[in-house]
Amino acid sequence: MNAVAATEFLARSTTLTSVGWIGYIVIGAIAGWIAGMAMKTKYGLLTDIIVGVVGALIGGFLLSFVVDTASGGWWFTLFTAILGSIILLWLVRLVGREA
Question: Any transmembrane segments, and where (predicted)?
Fold first, then answer.
């Protein structure tokens, strides 16, 4: 990895959408609640919200390599967060079965 690629990678990994950190946490909490209902989890609301926030961060980071997430706005961030949360809840459920 050359210096330009490393710089672009670091810049992309620190880029959030236009909603900022607090907005990301609020949207992640909402997304976790929606994802928990969609996946019919039995983990509880607090766990769904935590997974939602983490899923929002992971989903936003991964999607930033495909599209420009920095100009996405609230609806795009919510969609990304819900998608990331559903994937993360699915992985948590998958790992929970094997344990």
Answer: 19-38, 45-67, 73-92
On average, the pLDDT of the chain sits at: 75
The total domain count for the chain is: 1
Short-list 6, 7, 32, 40, CA closest to 84: 32
In a domain, 10, yes or no: no
The reported pTM is: 0.69
| Full domain range(s) for residue 79 | 16-96
CA distance 89 to 41: 8
Contact between residue 55 and residue 29 where contact means Cβ atoms under 8 Å apart: no
| Cα 45 from Cα 61, distance rounded (Å) | 24
pLDDT at 13: 47
Which residue in this structure is represented by tokens 């946490």?
A: 25
Enumerate helices (H) and strands (E) in the chain, giving the number of each: 4, 0
Tokens coding 29: 């909490």
